[in-house]
Specification:
The complex is a heterodimer of chains A (302) and B (232).
Chain A (H helix, E strand, L loop, with lengths): L2 H33 L6 H18 L4 H28 L6 H23 L13 E3 L13 E3 H23 L1 H11 L1 H6 L4 H27 L7 H14 L4 H21 L2 H18 L11
Antiparallel strand pairs in A: 1-2
Helix pairs in contact in A: 1-5, 1-8, 1-9, 1-10, 2-3, 2-4, 2-8, 2-9, 3-8, 5-6, 5-8, 9-10, 9-11, 10-11
Chain B lengths: L1 E10 L2 E11 L4 E5 L6 H9 L4 E8 L2 E2 L13 E4 L11 H11 L4 H10 L1 H5 L10 H13 L5 E5 L7 H16 L3 E5 L3 H7 L2 E6 L2 E7 H6 L2 H6 L4
Parallel strand pairs in B: 3-8, 3-9, 6-7, 7-8
Antiparallel strand pairs in B: 1-2, 1-4, 4-5, 9-10
Classes of the chains: A mainly alpha (302), B alpha/beta (232).
Chain lengths: 302, 232
């Protein structure tokens, strides 16, 4: 097969990965930005989203689209609620001490992971896509026959849905009262409280919201990828990579880094191996940490 | 109306306020004087509920503030201009004022009132707070606190590092608030600024209230000021 079509396909798969990664990493970035909590359990919220999506989809009968829409609503809400209560039960009692919250979220990681194993079982589960039309890539149509010359409508939907959600989050943060309150808390917790902002509620809400974003991106990807209780590792690693490269707490940096890492992960995985893709991404993180510790778009520590 | 009775506050194990008491009446400007580290800022933070009082009580018009959650205190009508302004630096002037308005659900009318008081902020309305000059930042910190339409205003060194024209503007605003029956508690280092607008002065040393005097009496007799602040 020619390089051209192969590259195009790899880019499309990369774009799907980048879109989902951007959503997941945004959740991690928001939690760190507002609460200064490094949430090691973030990947498990992703996993929970995928498992709940499977559970919902397989228990709602009828057309796969009904189950998918159900999962799209139920999974983020449920995962968000679980995360918010974890914040209230654990993180709040540690007074959001940076070191303590890292250890606590590592513990939370195992609780959620093993909880999922006990609840949903060890088997990888597939979720049927709500629609999955084969779309020929017009440029090459007829010129070649092979596995690689089409994409599916669902993959394009994932990209479009992720962009829509990212735009919605940006509008929420920049244009609404809730966004204003979250940003004020992020910039100066003490002063925010001195102006009537219930900081603890904002924290619980932010932690829940960040987890819900991870769950949402998991629901989007699960018809392509399958769900199992150990799937949280990769999204966690990639989210950290993205957030460190982009600059912690920087929305714009997170999006650009997600695009960069997601695309290169997709392309390198197709042409070489997924392992090489991870090696390169991790190397980039090391370089960023050495030469630009605040990330590409992060502000210098004050 | 605002009554602080025998509060004790700690940073970790270190006691920073000992049996601190003070009252501020409607339409009164009360000034806290004392050297650096005496506990003036902590007294204001204790009133705001930022530093918890382990014992003693703080009440506004008979309602206890010290038992409320920290974020409920400003909703009772206490505006706070913290030391060093503490603006939301990356947010615009408009958004900083909006945070103040949200505290007690005030709207357009209050926004206009505040912007009329500080017209310069109107010109800078869409700029980020960190791009303002020092004086403008202080105006914004005042505007944000006034956006809650306070009954009590806590001012922590509002004239620090400002040029004289700005100082007199802030002074005028404080005096006009007095006419609107707002109680103001002012922490200030500049003796002349204090004596010209304060009604009463409370002297603080080592986290304790040591003395109290009417500002009018201090003008002729600087002994107390020499004793507790150590400058003329």
């Amino acid at each position: 097969m020619d390089l051209g079509p192969q590259l195009m396909l790899a880019s499309l798969d990369g774009a799907v990965g980048a879109a989902v990664l951007a959503l997941t990493a945004l959740g991690l970035s928001l939690v760190f930005g507002v609460m200064r909590v490094v949430n090691v359990a973030h990947g498990e919220f992703f996993m929970l989203g995928a498992m709940i999506a499977w559970f919902v989809a397989s228990n709602i009968g009828g057309h796969p689209a009904i189950g998918f829409v159900g999962a799209l609503i139920i999974a983020p809400l449920l995962v968000g609620a679980i995360a918010a209560s974890a914040d209230w039960l654990i993180l709040k009692r540690l007074d959001y001490e940076p070191e303590a919250t890292i250890v606590a979220t590592i513990g939370l990681l195992y609780i959620l992971q093993q909880g999922a194993l006990v609840t949903f079982g060890p088997v990888a589960q597939a979720v049927e896509a709500p629609f999955n039309h084969r779309i020929e890539i017009p440029w090459f149509e007829g010129s070649n026959v092979g596995w690689g010359l089409f994409t599916t409508s669902y993959k394009l939907f994932v990209i479009a849905a992720a962009i829509t959600i990212l735009l919605a989050v940006w509008l929420l943060l920049s244009r609404t009262k809730m966004g204003l309150v979250m940003r004020a808390t992020q910039l100066d917790r003490e002063t925010a409280q001195a102006f009537g902002i219930p900081v603890e509620k904002v924290y619980a809400l932010t932690f829940g919201f960040g987890a819900a974003l991870a769950a949402l991106s998991a629901v989007l990807i699960v018809p392509i990828q399958q769900a199992d209780y150990l799937m949280g590792g990769d999204p966690l690693l990639l989210s950290f990579i993205v957030v460190i490269i982009g600059g912690l707490g920087s929305l714009r940096g997170t999006l650009i880094a997600a695009l960069l890492i997601g695309m290169s992960d997709g392309i390198i995985s197709v042409f070489f191996t997924p392992t090489l893709a991870k090696i390169i991404a991790t190397l980039v993180v090391a370089m960023v940490l050495v030469f630009r510790p605040q990330g590409l778009f992060g502000a210098k520590a004050q | 109306m605002l009554e602080v009775k025998g509060i004790n506050c700690f940073y970790g194990d270190v006691q920073v306020l000992r049996d601190m008491s003070l009252t501020a009446q409607q339409g009164e400007i009360l000034c806290l004087l004392g050297r650096n580290g005496a506990g003036k800022t902590t007294t204001l933070k204790a009133i705001m509920g930022i530093v918890p009082a382990r014992s003693g009580s703080i009440a506004l018009n008979g309602e206890s503030l010290s038992t409320l959650a920290g974020h409920e205190v400003p909703k009772r009508g206490i505006g706070y201009v913290p030391q060093g302004r503490r603006l939301f630096a990356e947010m615009t002037v408009a958004e900083n004022i909006e945070v103040g308005l949200l505290t007690r659900g005030k709207g357009e009318e209050t926004r206009e009132k505040v912007l009329t008081l500080f017209p310069r902020l109107r010109d800078r309305y869409r700029q980020r707070a960190e791009t303002l000059s020092g004086g403008e930042q202080q105006m914004l910190a005042m505007a944000r606190a006034l956006a809650i339409e306070p009954n009590v205003l806590l001012l922590d060194e509002p004239t620090e590092g400002l040029q004289p024209s700005m100082i007199s503007l802030i002074r005028d605003v404080v005096v006009s608030l007095k006419e609107q029956n707002v109680a103001t508690i002012l922490v200030e280092q500049r003796i002349d600024a204090v004596l010209s607008i304060a009604d009463r002065v409370v002297f603080i040393e080592n986290g304790e209230r040591r003395d109290e005097a009417l500002a009018a009496d201090l003008k002729d007799n600087l002994d107390l000021i020499h004793k507790y602040v150590g400058v003329s």
